[in-house]
């Protein structure tokens, strides 16, 4: 008898709810294990972990203060004192690279979180109200923002708001939300026909509750896959804006600002460009390997292969 | 006296999938005479389709022919070079038509383009030095379509495959495959995806054109029913082996293998009216996990201890009628009655 | 199909209207008084008042929007606050440089990438496949502006064989071509690997399709099967990607033009941002956006030509 009642209760439940009945840490562990099994996913995971550790513990890991100037030892090559050499103010490049992780991670996580929340919300609302005025309005909004070349729009927003870490996050998030919105809308269109949504509607649940309880949790897989790849893009664009002098303000250590300084002294000290370029390259490879792993792990079709 | 066109002997073929090895064809031997129709039947996953692909050497990369030969007009096709296959055999003497769901025709090219490409290749190898133009090939394509009964071929030739129904696509395929030069047509589940009425039309078209051109047919299907009208001889396959082979009226009239009997009993017919149709219990075993002895024994209603132990050889049980069942001798003339 | 194309093209109008509204409202996001912000330290009350009047900044918001839209409709994008030149003539000067850069890099990259991917799929056991994977990973790893810096470091500083700055002397095709090599490579190199990988993957799927088996059964020559029958199917995903990629390309052009000091739209926009010359920023972004919208339109339309199955609803 007992099993019967459980089954009855589970009929009206969405797949994600069934999953959520487990602890979310279990779900995370299962997903991560699947990611790590994919070729390259493990390496991506390791690199990202290193980046996170550098970002959180920069003050303990870096050998010296990233802003400490040492005019006597400007443009020094790599040595035991300064693993990566020093820049035009004699600052330790190795320490600045580690502190740069912090900016990169903050911008990436901040912008991606903000834009995915806004995008998914609008996308679900639009998909749930398919064919209504609000749907057309949201699609129009998405199409307008998507019409701008992304980085150019971000550049314009920062130019207007003024360069700062916070404004960079806002600008990047604004350029990216329609992409999450489109994914979420397309997913919602397929999910809302499912039995558990119909059942919830029949029970008279309010739309907002159906959206938050039954639709949103079940469309997250493809959104999460986008998150991974998008973080890489955000890191590049933060560097790009900072490189143009329209991102994080100096003397903050950002890879983009380090490239900017390197560009100024390209004739005399090449390693000033090489180290931040290398840091960006490693971050990009890490995030793309990891998100590729995520895609395979979350795609039931791929898992069967 | 009939002349053999195709003689397959001891053809054995494996699929190597990683560490799994699947024997898709196991010592297949048969002959097909000129102008004759040989029906090959069996459930899905019996290696029937592999047979056709093996003859044309269009097998997937994982397939490996272990031994045996395929004599076509006396020449072993397995020994020919890839160039000889292209110049003399494929699309010339031997053609093949496939099951047509959506994809047997290229979705992004017009029918005209696909047909003229094939006609051009045929022309290049058959009349070297011919000076046919694009216009001539187009005209030829239209004629072929007309022969297969497509209405308004002038206009339809410029359509894309997605604008055709399944039956019409199969007509296009037949138009590509059948011409006066074709000695052998391999039909692989050619009508499986079609409606029953369309299926009958297409089969009649195939038989009519083949008779006209003197083309032999190897007709592979899982539907034994369609073979009763078309085939001169029938070959029943199961899990990569031949279970029974003989004249159509003999196989239909007095099947000598319990598997053939079961397939026949699962067909609707006048006699079976009002009765429940048989469905054979269980399913075809995966080819890498075949049961011991006779591979059919777990599903066979008549299986005995002996069937578990010994692999039954294919033996001639009557004149031109072959069967692979250990119980055949013991049973004598008694029929295999499943229900 | 014509109906689909018209419908798709008409959708551009409301989208561009929205783009204009956003560009217009950006001025409202400026902290403080826009006129003094634009003029910066030179702002005297008289100059501020004069600018306010010239840009209609003293009028109510709907009136200003009306003026702005009317101006754009007439092709008048305003005048530069800094130099007093017409924005439209500044853009007309810059546009050919950006167009040349973008078309060269995308065209060459698409050609190399798609052919390389197809080749890697046809020879699926050769090391080319692995090479394509590595190339695509490198394309991801080295974003265009980092590639530009590294190329400059390598070919202008370490082994100085190519010019670092400028677009070459006008009217001298060889000089222009030489000045184009590094910027176009920086912008296009990531696309080669990406498109090669995309083409390779879809080509591998296509080569297993039933219609390829049909073609082989009829002795269509292998080369024709691969590069005609299969490639036309396999190239479909790349078309969409290229259309969407034009936005990324124009964004990349901003950096590449700054780094190599090429007088294109991107450099115009960034220099105007530095100078707080807002009409020029607005105009530059508008032109870049229109280019991107048109590229997407072109991609969607050519998609309809390559894939006849597309639903025209």
Structural account:
The complex is a heterotrimer of chains A (305), B (339) and C (313). Helix content of chain A is 74%, strand content 0%. By secondary structure, chain A is an all-alpha fold. The relative contact order of chain A is 0.15. Chain B is built from twelve helices and twelve strands. Chain B has helices spanning 48-56, 82-89, 111-126, 134-147, 153-156, 166-177, 196-213, 224-230, 248-253, 258-265, 305-309, 328-331, and strands at 4-17, 20-33, 37-41, 63-72, 75-76, 94-97, 184-188, 216-221, 233-238, 241-247, 315-318, 321-323. Chain B is globular and about 70 Å long. The mean pLDDT of chain B is 84. Chain C has 313 residues and is mainly alpha-helical. The chains are: A mainly alpha (305), B alpha/beta (339), C mainly alpha (313). Chains in contact: A-C, B-C. Chain A binds chain C through residues 140-141, 143-145, 147-153, 155-157, 159-162, 232, 236, 239-240, 243-246, 259, 262-263, 266-267, 270, 273-274, 277, 280-282, 284-285, 288, and chain C through 11, 14-16, 18-19, 21-23, 26-27, 29-31, 137, 140-143, 145-146, 149-150, 152-153, 157-158, 246-248, 250-252, 254-255, 258-259, 266, 269-270, 273-274, 281, 285, 288-289, 292-293.
How many helix segments of chain A?
Answer: 15
Unreliable residue stretches of chain A: 1-12
Provide the residue-averaged pLDDT of chain C: 79
CA distance, first residue to last residue of chain C? 9 Å
**Greatest chain-chain contact:** A-C, 42 and 48 residues
User: What does the radius of gyration of chain C come to?
Assistant: 24 Å
How much of the sequence of chain A is in beta strands?
A: under 5%
Please state the structural category of chain A.
mainly alpha
Which assembly state applies to the chains in this document? heterotrimer
Main sheet summary of chain C: none
Q: What is the 3D shape of chain C?
A: globular
What is the helix content of chain A?
over 70%
Low-confidence stretches of chain C are none
Please write the string of helix (H) and strand (E) elements of chain C: HHHHHHHHHHHHHH
Distance separating the two termini of chain A: 39 Å
Helix content of chain C: over 70%
Mean pLDDT of chain A: 77
Q: How is the biggest beta sheet of chain A arranged?
A: none
What fraction of residues of chain C sit in β-strands? under 5%
Tally of strands of chain A = 0
């Amino acid at each position: 008898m007992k099993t019967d009642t459980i089954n009855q209760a589970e009929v009206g439940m969405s797949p994600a709810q069934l999953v959520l009945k487990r602890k979310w840490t279990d779900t995370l562990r299962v997903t991560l294990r699947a990611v790590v099994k994919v070729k390259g996913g493990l390496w991506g995971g390791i690199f990202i972990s290193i980046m996170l550790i550098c970002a959180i513990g920069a003050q303990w890991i870096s050998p010296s203060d990233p802003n400490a100037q040492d005019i006597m030892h400007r443009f020094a090559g790599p040595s035991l004192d300064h693993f990566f050499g020093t820049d035009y103010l004699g600052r330790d490049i190795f320490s600045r690279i580690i502190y740069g992780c912090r900016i990169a991670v903050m911008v990436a996580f901040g912008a991606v979180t903000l834009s995915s929340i806004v995008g998914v919300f609008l996308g679900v609302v639009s998909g749930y109200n398919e064919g209504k005025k609000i749907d057309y309005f949201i699609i129009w909004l998405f199409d307008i923002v998507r019409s701008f070349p992304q980085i150019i729009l971000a550049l314009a927003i920062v130019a207007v708001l003024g360069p700062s870490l916070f404004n960079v996050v806002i600008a990047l998030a604004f350029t990216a939300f329609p992409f999450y919105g489109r994914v979420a809308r397309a997913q919602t269109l397929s999910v809302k026909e499912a039995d558990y949504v119909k059942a919830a509607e029949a029970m008279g649940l309010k739309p907002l509750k159906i959206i938050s309880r039954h639709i949103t949790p079940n469309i997250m897989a493809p959104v999460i896959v986008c998150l991974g790849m998008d973080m890489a893009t955000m890191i590049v664009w933060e560097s790009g804006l900072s490189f143009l002098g329209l991102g994080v303000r100096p003397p903050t250590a950002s890879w983009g600002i380090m490239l900017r300084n390197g560009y100024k002294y390209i004739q005399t000290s090449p390693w000033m460009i090489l180290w931040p370029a290398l840091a960006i390259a490693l971050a990009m490879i890490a995030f793309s390997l990891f998100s590729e792993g995520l895609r395979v792990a979350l795609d039931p079709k791929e898992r069967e292969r | 006296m009939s002349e053999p066109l195709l003689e397959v002997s001891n053809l054995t073929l494996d699929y190597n999938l990683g560490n799994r090895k699947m024997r898709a064809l196991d010592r297949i031997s048969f002959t097909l005479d000129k102008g004759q129709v040989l029906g090959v039947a069996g459930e899905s996953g019996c290696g029937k389709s592999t047979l056709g692909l093996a003859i044309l050497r269009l097998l997937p990369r994982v397939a490996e022919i272990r031994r045996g030969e395929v004599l076509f007009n006396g020449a072993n096709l397995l020994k020919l070079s890839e160039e000889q296959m292209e110049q003399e055999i494929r699309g010339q003497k031997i053609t093949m038509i496939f099951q047509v769901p959506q994809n047997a025709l290229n979705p992004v090219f017009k029918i005209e383009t696909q047909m003229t490409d094939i006609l051009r290749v045929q022309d290049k190898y058959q009349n070297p030095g011919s000076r046919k133009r694009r216009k001539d090939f187009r005209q030829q394509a239209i004629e072929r379509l007309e022969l297969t009964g497509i209405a308004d071929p002038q206009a339809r030739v410029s359509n894309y495959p997605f604008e055709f129904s399944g039956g019409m696509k199969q007509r296009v395929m037949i138009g590509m495959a059948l011409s006066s030069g074709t000695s052998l047509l391999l039909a692989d589940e050619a009508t499986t995806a079609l409606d029953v009425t369309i299926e009958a039309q297409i089969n009649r078209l195939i038989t009519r054109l083949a008779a006209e051109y003197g083309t032999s047919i190897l007709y592979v299907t899982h539907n034994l029913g369609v073979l009763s009208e078309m085939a001169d001889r029938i070959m029943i396959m199961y899990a990569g082996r031949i279970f029974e082979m003989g004249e159509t009226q003999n196989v239909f009239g007095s099947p000598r293998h319990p598997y053939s009997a079961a397939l026949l009993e699962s067909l609707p017919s006048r006699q079976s009216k009002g009765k429940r149709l048989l469905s054979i219990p269980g399913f075809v075993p995966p080819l890498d996990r075949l049961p011991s002895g006779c591979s059919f024994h777990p599903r066979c209603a008549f299986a005995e201890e002996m069937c578990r132990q010994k692999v039954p050889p294919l033996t001639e049980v009557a004149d031109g009628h072959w069967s692979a069942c250990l119980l055949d001798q013991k049973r004598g003339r008694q029929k295999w009655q499943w229900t | 199909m014509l109906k689909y194309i018209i419908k798709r093209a008409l959708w551009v109008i409301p989208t561009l209207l929205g783009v204009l509204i956003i560009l217009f409202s950006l001025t409202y996001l400026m902290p403080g008084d826009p006129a003094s912000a634009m003029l910066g330290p030179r702002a005297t009350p008289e100059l501020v008042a004069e600018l306010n009047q010239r840009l209609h900044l003293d009028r109510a918001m709907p009136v200003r929007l009306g003026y702005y839209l009317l101006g754009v409709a007439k092709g008048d994008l305003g005048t530069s606050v800094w130099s007093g030149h017409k924005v439209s003539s500044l853009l007309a000067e810059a546009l050919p440089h950006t167009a040349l850069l973008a078309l060269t890099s995308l065209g060459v990259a698409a050609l190399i990438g798609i052919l390389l991917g197809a080749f890697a799929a046809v020879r699926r056991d050769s090391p080319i496949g692995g090479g394509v994977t590595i190339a695509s990973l490198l394309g991801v790893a080295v974003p265009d502006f980092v590639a530009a810096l590294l190329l400059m470091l390598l070919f202008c500083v370490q082994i100085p064989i190519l010019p670092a700055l400028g677009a070459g002397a006008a009217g001298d095709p060889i000089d222009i071509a030489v000045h184009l090599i590094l910027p176009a490579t920086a912008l296009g190199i990531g696309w080669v690997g990406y498109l090669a990988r995309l083409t390779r993957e879809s080509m591998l799927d296509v080569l297993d399709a039933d219609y390829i088996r049909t073609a082989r059964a009829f002795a269509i020559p292998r080369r024709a099967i691969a590069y005609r029958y299969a490639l036309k199917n396999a190239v479909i995903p790349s078309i969409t990607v290229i259309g969407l990629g034009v936005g990324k390309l124009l964004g990349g052009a901003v950096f590449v033009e700054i780094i190599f000091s090429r007088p294109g739209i991107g450099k115009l926009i960034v220099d105007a941002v530095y100078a707080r010359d807002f009409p020029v920023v607005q105009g530059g972004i508008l032109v870049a956006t229109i280019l991107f919208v048109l590229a997407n339109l072109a991609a969607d339309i050519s998609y309809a030509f390559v894939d006849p199955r597309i639903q025209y609803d």
